[in-house]
């Protein structure tokens, strides 16, 4: 607490030797704050002219500091998710129906897109005819690639 004569600090335990210098630094910093008084604390926002906080003023301030607010979480999240999913595909560990059957689930392992072959990672992401996921990617990149299973 602070009274007219200065700070009256009561500690629950005696200070250790290594804490004494830190306490002296702390008290010196406090003495430089001469504007402190015994009046009640008040909340004041620097984002609003009247000092009132609002979510809108915080959002506008954040938007000024970060011009791409709408893209902010996605730039961090999607890179990690794509990397993890690609790792699962490379390890043949993505939960396709084929992998679920190997883990003991009672399923009919049939591709839900073509309904002809078993739903495996290779079939879903390389060969399934209706999805053509890789074909879209390849066309965008301008790569010439021909699948071994073009008719599937």
Structural write-up:
With 152 residues, the protein is mainly α. It is 44% helix and 3% strand. It has helices spanning 17-31, 55-65, 72-90, 97-102, 121-127, 133-141; strands spanning 2-3, 6-7. Strands 1-2 form a two-stranded antiparallel sheet. The N and C termini lie far apart (79 Å). 5% of the residues are buried.
Please give the structural blueprint.
Blueprint (H helix, E strand, L loop, with lengths): L1 E2 L2 E2 L9 H15 L23 H11 L6 H19 L6 H6 L18 H7 L5 H9 L11
Antiparallel strand pairs: 1-2
Beta content comes to: under 5%
Q: Low-confidence runs (pLDDT<50, min 5 residues)?
A: none
What is the 3D form?
A: elongated
**What percentage of residues falls in helices of 4 or more residues?**
40-55%
Number of structurally distinct domains: 2
User: Based on DSSP secondary structure assignment, what is the total number of beta strands?
Assistant: 2
The largest sheet, given as strand count, sense and whether it forms a barrel, is:
2 strands, antiparallel
* H/E topology pattern: EEHHHHHH
Count of runs of 4 or more consecutive helical residues: 6
Subunit organisation of the chains? single chain
* Spatial extent as radius of gyration: 32 Å
Structural class: mainly alpha
**Would you tell me the overall average pLDDT?**
77
Give the distance, in angstroms, between the N- and C-terminal Cα atoms: 79 Å
- Main sheet: strand order: 1-2
């Amino acid at each position: 607490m602070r009274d007219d004569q200065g700070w009256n600090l009561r500690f629950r335990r005696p200070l250790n030797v290594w804490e004494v210098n830190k306490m002296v630094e702390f008290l010196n910093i406090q003495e430089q704050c001469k504007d402190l008084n015994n009046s009640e604390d008040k909340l004041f926002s620097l984002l609003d002219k009247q000092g009132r906080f609002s979510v809108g003023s915080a959002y506008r301030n954040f938007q000024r500091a970060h011009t791409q607010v709408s893209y902010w979480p996605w730039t961090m999240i999607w890179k990690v998710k794509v990397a993890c999913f690609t790792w699962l595909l490379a390890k043949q560990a993505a939960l396709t129906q084929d992998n679920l059957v190997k883990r003991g689930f009672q399923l009919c392992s049939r591709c839900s897109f073509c309904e002809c072959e078993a739903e495996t990672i290779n079939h879903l992401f390389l060969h399934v005819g209706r999805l053509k996921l890789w074909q879209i990617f390849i066309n965008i990149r301008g790569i010439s690639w021909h699948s071994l299973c073009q008719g599937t």
